Amino acid sequence: NIEAAKLSVVETMASDCEAKRSCVDGFTSSDYRNNFHVINQLVQPLLTDLYQITMAYAYWKNWKHYDRAVFDLFFRNNPFNGEFTIFAGLEECLRFINDFRFTDSDVSYLKQLLPEKTEPEFFGYLRSLSAKDVTVYAIAEGSLVFPKVPLMRIEGPLPVVQLMETTLLNLVDYASLVTTNAARHRLAAGPEKELIEFGLRRAQGPDGGVSASRYSFIGGFDATSNVLAGKLFGIPVRGTHAHAFVSSFSSLSEVQTRTIQPVSGSEQSQSPVKIVPLVSEYVGQVSDVVGVPSTEINEGELAAFIAYAVSFPAGFLALIDTYDVVSSGLPNFCIVALVLNELGYRAVGVRIDSGDLAYLSKRVQMAYKAIAEKFSLPWFADLKIVASNQINEETLMSLNSQGHCITAFGIGTNLVTCQTQSALGCVFKVQFVLVDLV
């Protein structure tokens, strides 16, 4: 029964992944929608291993360029010692195949790269190549797949299909690996938790960062911190501020913008309201409710929270662990959130980036409930608690066992670098060759 339940969950996730892929495919600029061409200009015929070019020359020289071949792309083992894989990267493969052509510049470079005695007619042959005689069969992107079952079958002229091998493997291997990794994190976190991909700064270069954002979304994540990925693929983008923002303030005197325009219909007048006096009114009250002496509250942190709330009153989510979560960050957040409430705004929540995440999330939830009861604000008890900092599958399962109160996770390094396995290990193997004897 347990295995059947797990299979049901995974099958549901596979369906969700395929739907996410369709969502990503359906969005972007008009150029992306109307022209089925490669997005990443690095994806081109020269993105290959040299031996693909030398084999193509040997095929051509021996008149095997008229032979037709069938190659299968597959993998041999599920990643992460798991029981399933999610197939991804198909769209990028199809874009590459659709655009497959060697340019004049490509051919000029290959003339320099290959031996001087390479027959010049071969370069003319390369320049004439396209995918017009290539046929692709594939499993739907986002599908649940298993070892040794072909993900893609490519049929076409032997040299042409051979020249595509390295690029196709590159486009499928990491895409499927990180999509599967994202799906595993989703299973560990549970269906109700919000998952945000935070991995751009730790990813393997710009291309790895954008790919990770795209395929984490397909694998079950809800959003990304990667602005470019949001622009290119329509993925929801999330983000607030870092420790540097908090530590850049040292006193309330540094808050230059000190007024907020209240929401229409709130209790305050419709002229901008000075926020610092309101903050001062709540310091003592909040300190009493959360059980922390007001003398322990860091003024610079409070100033930073005010400055951010003034800038984003409708999207105030504060990072509360720069100094001390319980004695400073949490009460400072509650103070500013209560002021925003007076002006008609609702804060979003807090983020914790260090420490005992399970324990701290419980302390935050206790404070939320206490504030909600004290000030008759039921919605305050449901504010977000976001956790980040080196989170992986094992961390998620450990937090679950501790009964945490976290509502959202920001996951970066261990997601995008695929911490426990660096590659899926896809292969591209010839299945048969139809020899042209003419």
Strand percent estimate: 5-15%
DSSP summary, beta strand count: 14
CA radius of gyration = 28 Å
Low-confidence stretches: 1-9, 23-34
| Structural class by SSE content | alpha/beta
Describe the strand arrangement of the main beta sheet, using strand numbers.
7-6-13-12-11-10
Helix count from the secondary structure assignment = 16
Order of SSEs, N→C? Answer: HHHEEHHHEEEHEHEHHEEHHEHEHEHEHE
The average pLDDT value, as a whole number, equals 92
How would you sum up the major sheet? 6 strands, parallel
Please give a structural write-up.
The protein has helices at 2-26, 30-34, 50-61, 90-98, 104-113, 120-128, 158-189, 205-218, 227-233, 243-247, 275-290, 299-311, 325-342, 357-374, 393-401, 413-416, and strands at 68-74, 85-86, 135-138, 144-145, 152-157, 194-197, 223-224, 259-260, 273-274, 317-319, 349-352, 384-387, 408-411, 427-434. By secondary structure, the chain is of the alpha/beta class. The radius of gyration is 28 Å and the shape is elongated.
Attribute tags:
alpha/beta, six-stranded parallel sheet, about 450 residues, about 45% helix, 16 helices
